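User: Hi! Is it possible to get a structure for several chains at once, not just one? Here's what I have:
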Amino acid sequence: MALAKVVLGHGSGGRLSRDLVEQVFLKSFSNPSLKPLEDSAEVKVGGVTLAFTTDSYVVTPVEFPGADIGRVAVCGTVNDLAVKGARPAALSAGFILEEGFPGDLLLRITRSMRRAADEAGVSIVTGDTKVVERGKADGIFINTAGVGLIPKGRCLTSSAVKPGDVIIVSGNLADHGVAVMNARDRLGLQGGIKSDAAPLNGMIEGLLRAPGVRAMRDITRGGLATVLNEVSGACGLTAELEENSVPVSPASRNACALLGLDPLYVANEGKIAVFCAPSAAPRALQALRAHRYGRNAVVVGRMLKEKKPQVRLVTAIGGARVLLMLEGEQLPRIC
Amino acid sequence: MALAKVVLGHGSGGRLSRDLVEQVFLKSFSNPSLKPLEDSAEVKVGGVTLAFTTDSYVVTPVEFPGADIGRVAVCGTVNDLAVKGARPAALSAGFILEEGFPGDLLLRITRSMRRAADEAGVSIVTGDTKVVERGKADGIFINTAGVGLIPKGRCLTSSAVKPGDVIIVSGNLADHGVAVMNARDRLGLQGGIKSDAAPLNGMIEGLLRAPGVRAMRDITRGGLATVLNEVSGACGLTAELEENSVPVSPASRNACALLGLDPLYVANEGKIAVFCAPSAAPRALQALRAHRYGRNAVVVGRMLKEKKPQVRLVTAIGGARVLLMLEGEQLPRIC
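Assistant: Yes, the chains can be modeled jointly so their relative placement is included. Here is the combined structure:
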């Protein structure tokens, strides 16, 4: 069916986003680099293999506990490069500002971008600013794009995931989404919930020193459930998730229960899913846990060959439930 | 002085844009690749030299005679790569959509992007879409970033321009700005004025087969006068422009006169300024004129060593007038 009008859910990262990509972007832009729809595209240039990625950020409010739109804009793009095994080489930054945006806030946001970029060991080398009239944007929107080098011999892709592979997540889920929602709606939830926004390229370099990692995904919009659906679709395997193993902090778990959110669908900005051979799992866990951003890394499930691949949650009481991609929009403007 | 609030002029591409870059972006992001502030940054990755650039597009209306926001978004980024001597390798596209944006218009815009990309011989390999609530954006904003390969031995930079170098423009100025303004304000100006938006990498490859080209600039926001001020600042030379030589079509000249616009400050999306040794000028002109987008290429002035470098217009009646950078905002949201 043709797309009539854009709705908020088209920006969710879930099924409606996928529909929009298939009905509009893949149709118009079709090419082999775009087709895998992973976190970054692979491009060969002058004999080297690059990862190339972009994201726009429209999160509101622009500052919230643990991060701000600038930090998220840098970390999101660094992580999209890193999960393809690329070493981030350079970032761009495009700003769309609403007339009247405060100068001191802009300076605070750009300084936060610089700190995140420094932590990732990458520079913001090119940029652009447009200004629109009052009422034609919402304060500030930031786009970042990133280029990274994929070292020779590295090939991380969801289609390489094999039956029996284990699924690891690098830490507690849902903190970013809960922190933004708490700040946006002044919910006053206690427990010091902070966004997890962090550049993960350092942790990932450590992880990749061990063999056996087949693919990684950045667990952002749509949450772990959506990422697993994408990987399941790409490799044709079932992803079986053990509910008891999924790491969520007590504070975020309580907040999600209160707000009617499922942590498996809430966005993160500093967590990855790793797919690796079972024999490689102990070393992978060790490498992740050795890094400050991976201390709570844990095995959450496995990939299985089944006639009808699906994403399945084995619940705490031994039941099973199918996890679809995020439908519609759970939390708009979370990144 | 610290920046209090963002005003429309900060997006003009002129002096206020430069102030914003110096007060905020250079201060926060400072690094050697960013510092030259040219149309793209040079980045060395894995032994190759890349050009990397980004631009966001907020032009209104989104469709106008000769082009649309999608075509401009592709051509602008292709041209920013090409004027650094780079061969475009891949583009990204980030969309910010307002809830309710029509699906058929989005498809038309993305197809137009594809046609422009095909003409440039480049693919859109990665993308992103965010959707914001009704009233929080203005229909559609597009960011494109681009990566290109700079062949070994090529080094085009404004600081390489030398005394005596001639200034060539590749064709008629001001058509893009006039076409957008005519469509936006339904002015009903006659003469079939169309945006000149075009990918210039093919024309530029032809031009660079001849030696002696020292630098090129994409003449977009702020117009030729602003570009010459930037180049004059980078190489420390005076740019002397002959008013009689500046090519403007009669229709656009009349429209500018009527609207109180100076064509030297109006944006183009398919014109470049070329700086080359005087001995190289005949071959450069020949190469440009051999291409459909360079048929009206002409020498418009020269670079001179003077105690106090400036941009000077020698008028039709033999007088002289200093051209400053664009002050404030002549035509907001032109790209």
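Chain B has two domains: 39-150, 158-323. Chain B touches chain A through 81 residues (CB under 8 Å).

User: Great, thank you!
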